[in-house]
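Workshop exercise sheet. Pairs work together: one partner reads the sequence aloud, the other fills in the structure field after running the prediction. Swap roles for the next sheet.
Pair: D.N. / O.F.
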Amino acid sequence: MDLDAYADTHRERWTELDRLARRRPRSGADVDRLVAEYQAAATDLARIRQVAPRSATGDRLSLTLHRARLRFTGTPTDPLTLLTRFFALQLPAALYRIRWVTIWVAVATAVVAAITAVWIASTPGAVGTFGSDEALRQYATQDFVDYYSDHGLGAFTAQVWTNNAYIAASMVAFGITGLFVPYAIVQNAVSLGVSASIMHSQGRLGDFFLYIAPHGQLELYSIFLAGGAGLLIAWSWIAPGQRTRAQALAEDGRALITVAIGLVLTLLLSGIVEGTVTRQDWPWPVKIGIGTVALVAVLTYQWVLGGRAYRAGERGDVDEFDRGATSIVAG
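Structure field:
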């Protein structure tokens, strides 16, 4: 379908709908005409979306439909319905959109962390720059392990959650700069590499992986998700495609900020695991298994449920302008 030709053919009818939507109906005939024009335009929007999920023509028509719908609905959407839609469609679709960038962020983190750890461990005197022998020994034998049990369960969980949520939100919010996310990724990876090299120097590398594994799987993946969202926000204005930069940034920004809301929950879950599971005197396979189950649950939500929502046309955009079109056509 030629989108421009289709728009030229129906533009007069869409203009009439916009005119009707901008004033209060004065009679029953006006209401009937508004509803009829709305249904026809909703069908047009559905056809446009099949050809171009995002286009200036579709967005303008979506706004007109939203304005018209307010004229004959007026009742706000049930909050429970909005909440259900958010968690069943919008959030998983937004997470699905960043799936491959998330994987690349994870790979980059692993590579930088490994290079850092190997370089420090293989360079004579390098590990000594991080402290005296006594300080390094205390870090590896006491501080690293005691970190998970020095504070009360509730306070520790809240502290971990708040800190990680702040980092994740910053990566999404400042992703627009194009520089903050790479900086944060490298900084996080280098910190992991330094910790691993210090633990290795004291013969405690096994403890490093054991204590990180229960909560670290989901915690790190959440940070990777934040990095992926931030990078895509930057890419939306670097390479907007057929859209203007302002339009691309507004559309993708709304959708990917949704990810930040989801990360608050995934990091809360990883914080609970870190505060309640890692510190327990349970067999390591049990503790690591709990962390793995939490990660698999989030991966399933992102890749399976998110894939279904995305293929159904959901893009994770919390904007409500085009919500009525599908329901009217289906009805």
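Discussion prompt: The longest helix spans residues 205-238. What would you look at next?
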